[in-house]
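User: tokens in, sequence out, please.
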């Protein structure tokens, strides 16, 4: 479950909140005047170009651009 805090709470304890995100692997949402403005998520290494895996939908001619899924 993600934690929601105000930016004044975050400002006073930045390092503790960042360690918490890192250790618990859960996002943190920072608000300003009750509205979400920033979401901090744990870093996830997806490797080189793994984010493109299975994204090609249509591939006809190797000399033409590849149409990717959106």
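Assistant: Sequence out:
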């Amino acid at each position: 479950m993600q934690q929601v805090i105000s930016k004044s709470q975050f400002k006073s304890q930045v390092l503790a909140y960042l360690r918490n995100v890192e250790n618990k692997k859960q996002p943190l949402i920072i608000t300003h005047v009750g509205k979400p403005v920033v979401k901090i998520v744990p870093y996830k290494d997806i490797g080189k170009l793994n984010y493109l895996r299975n994204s090609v939908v249509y591939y006809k001619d190797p000399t033409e651009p590849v149409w990717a899924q959106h």
